[in-house]
Amino acid sequence: MMGQMMQMPLMISSLITHAARHHGTTEIVSRRVEGDLHRTTYADAERRARRVAKALDRLGLATGARVATLAWNGYRHFELYFGVSGSARVVHTINPRLAPDQVAWIANHAEDSVLCFDMSFLPIIKAVWRQCTTVKHWIALCDADALPKDSGIDGLQSYEAWVDAESDGYDWPAFDENSAAVLCYTSGTTGNPKGALYSHRSTLLHAYAGALPDALDLSARDCVLPVVPMFHVNAWGIPYGAAMTGAKLVFPGPALDGKSVYELLESERVTMAAGVPTVWLMLLNHVKQHGLAFTHMRRTVIGGSACPPAMIKSFRDDYGVTVLHAWGMTEMSPLGTVCKLKLAQSELDADAQLAVMAKQGRAVYGVDMRIVDPDGRELPWDGQASGDLHVRGPWVIQSYFKGEGGDPLVGGWFPTGDVAVIDADGFLQITDRSKDVIKSGGEWISSIDIENVAIAHPGVAMAACIALPHPKWDERPLLVVVKKPGAELTSAELLRFYEGRVAKWQVPDDVVFVDAIPLGATGKMQKNKLREQFKAHKLPNA
Amino acid sequence: MMGQMMQMPLMISSLITHAARHHGTTEIVSRRVEGDLHRTTYADAERRARRVAKALDRLGLATGARVATLAWNGYRHFELYFGVSGSARVVHTINPRLAPDQVAWIANHAEDSVLCFDMSFLPIIKAVWRQCTTVKHWIALCDADALPKDSGIDGLQSYEAWVDAESDGYDWPAFDENSAAVLCYTSGTTGNPKGALYSHRSTLLHAYAGALPDALDLSARDCVLPVVPMFHVNAWGIPYGAAMTGAKLVFPGPALDGKSVYELLESERVTMAAGVPTVWLMLLNHVKQHGLAFTHMRRTVIGGSACPPAMIKSFRDDYGVTVLHAWGMTEMSPLGTVCKLKLAQSELDADAQLAVMAKQGRAVYGVDMRIVDPDGRELPWDGQASGDLHVRGPWVIQSYFKGEGGDPLVGGWFPTGDVAVIDADGFLQITDRSKDVIKSGGEWISSIDIENVAIAHPGVAMAACIALPHPKWDERPLLVVVKKPGAELTSAELLRFYEGRVAKWQVPDDVVFVDAIPLGATGKMQKNKLREQFKAHKLPNA
Fold this sequence. Notes:
2 copies of one chain form a homodimer. By secondary structure, chain A is α/β, with parallel strands linked by helices. Chain A has 16 helices and 25 strands. Chain A starts with 12 loop residues before the first helix and ends in a 9-residue tail after the last helix. The interface between A and B is large, with 75 and 74 residues.
C-alpha cells in the first residue's frame, strides 16, 4: 500500500525559489575579481538564475548538457549553480588550479557545451580553448564593457550581456529528481580524474543533512563565508544549504589571504566560515600578528585535510571560535562526518574535549559507515581497531561518470581509501590515507599523527611525513618540513620534540627542511611528488 | 541523463538503526501508566523494535496491514512506531480522547488488524472490542503478570510476553519509500474523520526539515520532552527527529499536570519541550505558584492552537525560555511553520520581537505556502492581505485514505481551511484558524458533531455550536438552540443527552435558546453572526 502524500520531486530550483520567497532581501555579498565588493539578494539571484535558464534554452542546450564553470566563489557562480541545474542541465565545476592541459582534458571528457569563466582565468582559456572541442559557447563572467576585444576566442560573450538579453519570465520545470545536476571531478591522484555525477535528489538530501544542528547548523540568523571553493565539491554544499535556510552569504572571490578574509569576516559580521587548514593558518597568522579578534564569528568548519589540534585549540582558547572538524570526499557530495560534541562530551574538561574535537566526528544522518579488516570483516567501534573505511548513503556515488574505473563498490559500500578508527560514541578518526600509511615492521604509523606533532612545534609552518623503503623495517618515516620565516630549528631539535608525544618507534628517522611542499589543485600536500623527490634519500641507520 | 548516486530508499527503520549505532547509550526515559520511571536506550529500543517486527511476521500480517495504538507517550509506543513501519506495516495512532464509538468507527474504517493499548484504556477497549470487527489481535502494553485475567477480550496478550517470544535476529527490509507508514485521522470537522496516510519518504523528509536549526533545532546535546501526544500527528514528528539526531527522549506518559511535567523537566535535565498552550498554562501556573525555575529548559515548541502572547512573554522574561510558536495540521505530517527569528528580527527590541514571536512563523523548507482571495488569485505577502491559506510539499497529503472526500486539492495545492496573513519576511499569522472548529485545550471539537447530537434530540429544531473564549481551555463550545414548537427542554436536560454520545470534554459548556438562527443565502447557518451576538456571553466555570 502506498502513502497518499504529494509526489513532489526534490528539485535544486526549489532551494532558490524558497530563498527568494522567504528570504528575498537577505544579502549575497561578493568580493569580485575586479577587487570591489558586490551586493545582491536572494530575490535578485533567483531572478537572474531564471535568465540563465532562459539563455541556455536560447542556445538550444539539451537536457543533461554540461555547462562548465571555471570561477571563484561569487554571485555569478551562485546564479549558474541554480540556473543550470534548475533548467535540467548539469553544472560542471572545473578546478582552475589544475594545469591548463588537465582543464582541457576534463572539459573534453565531460563533453562540456558551455564554459563560463572568471576573467582571472582568461589566460588558461586562451591557452586551451582550441583543445576543448565540445565547447560551443564561451562566457566571460564580466560586464559587457569589460569583455576583451582581442581574446581570439571564437564567439566569446560577456555573462552580463548574455543574461541581460533575457526576460524574467520563466517557470522552473519539475522532472525526475534522480536526474543529473552537478558534475565534480576527483583530483585524480592516481591516473586520470574521475567524475562524480550528483543528482537533484542527492544534492537536496545532502543539503538537509548538512544544515542540521550537528552538521553545519545553518539558519536565517547566520552569515556564512565559504572560503572552500565552489569549484571544489560545491563548497561542501554551502550554496545549497544557505539557500535552504536563508543564511546570508559572503563570497571571498580570489582574495584568500589572511588580511582579505579577516576584513570580510568583520565587515560583513560573518558568524560561520568554512575552509581547509592551509587557509585558516594564513588567517590565524594574520590575526595573531596584528593582535586582532573575531567579533562575530562563532564557529568554523574545517575539512579537506586533517586539522592540527593546535589550530582547533587556538581558535577555541585564543578567539572563542568553535572548530567543527569535518570529513568527506568528492564521491560523497562531500559531507560524511562533522565533529560536534554530544551531551556527554560537552561535559568533559577542556583538554578532553579537545581530544574529541581533533577527530573527524560523527556521521551525519544519511551516511552509513563501517570499518573492515583486509578480509572485509567488519571491525568493532572501540576506538582501537583500525581498518578500511567504507560508506554508503543516498549522496554517495554508485559509479563514476561514464563508468570510468568500473564498479567502485564493495558489497554495496564505497571504499573511501581512508584508514580509520571509530570509537564507541561513533566518532570517526581518519588515521591516514591507506596509501600514505607508513608500514614499519608490521605496525602502521599514521603519517597524519606524525605531521600533527611537527605542526605543534612553534618553528614549523608545514610538515609532510612520507614512507621511505627500509631494509629491516620495510618502511620508515621521513619528515619533510617548511620552517616558519626566521625560525631557527635543527633536525635533532625537532626529533627531540617527539619524545613523549608518540611511541619511540613512530619517531621519524630523519628530517629534511625544504622551502615549499608541493600542493595539489585542492590545496592538499602532494605526497606522491615528495616520495618521488626523496626516493634516493638515505635514512640514517638504513 | 540520470545522476550516478546510490539508490537508497528513505526508510523509517534507518532512523532507529542510526540512533542505535551512533547514540546507542542515549537514554529514553518514560513515566509509565504504572507511575514509575522507566529507563531504556536507543540500542535497546531498536532491538525491541526488531522483535515487534518479528512478532508481526509471526502473526502473518501482510505488508501495509494497519497496527493501531491507543497509548500515551512512552517507550513501548516508540518501539511500535519503528517496529510496525520498519517492517512495512502501517502504524495507526488512535486518539484515546475520542468517545468509544468514535474509536470503534475509526478502527473499522482503518481496518486495523492489531490494536495495542495502554492499560489505562482498558475500559474503552472492553466497551468497543466486539465492534472492532477487523481487529484479530489485542495487545495490552504491560508486563505478562499485569495482564488482566478476566478482561473478556478474546486472545488478549501482554506486549512484553509478545515481544519476549521473539529473538533479536531481524534484518530491516528496504522497499519503496513511497509505501504507507503511518495513518492519522483528522478530527473530522465536517462529517466523519478522514485518514492521512503518510509514507516513509514523507516522514523522513519531514524529520529532516523538522530537526533544522530554524525548526525544532534537534541535536545530540538535546533532551526532548514531547507533551504533545504520540497519538496526535506523531507528537509533531519528535520521535523520528530525536532518533535522527540522537537527542535524549523523555516521555511523560499520562501525567500531564504541571507538577509532574515540571519534575520530569528538572530531574531529566530537559532542554526542549513541546506541547499545546493548555498544558503549558498548567505548567506555568505550577512554577509560578511554587516560585520555581527552569534550570535546563531553553526552548519550548507550542502549537495546536494559537499561543497567547502573554505566555510567550512570561516564558521569555520570567524564565529565560524561548517559545517557538508553530503551526501545522494532520494533513501536513504536521509541520508547516515555526516562528524562529531571522537575523533582522533578533536585533529588534524585546517588545517588537514579541510581536513577531506571536505569529505562527516561517515555512520550514519543503513546505510551500500561499494565500489566495475567494477567486483563487494569489495575495501579496504584505502583512495586510488576508486570504485562504494553501500549502503543498512532499509531506502534505495528496488525498485522504480510501479517497474519502474526493480530491481535496485546488490546482495542486491543499487548502488548509485557515485564513491567514503573511508578512514580507514570510512570517505567517493565522487570523481565523478555521471557520467553526472549537479548539479546546489543543484538541479540536467539531461543531457539526455537537450540533448533530443536539439535532437528534426530539425537542431540538435547529442547533449551532460556536466557540467562546475560555481562560483555561482557550475555547469552549456554546450551543445555540431553536426548540421545536411546544417542546419543553432545559439546558441541563440537553447537556445530559450528550453523555455517552461524545467524549466528556466535547460536551458544550452551556446552552442558550433562541427564536431563530440567522441563515445565509444558501441556507447555511451564519455562525459569524452568532459569535458576534454571544461574544459577551458568560460560560459557567469560565
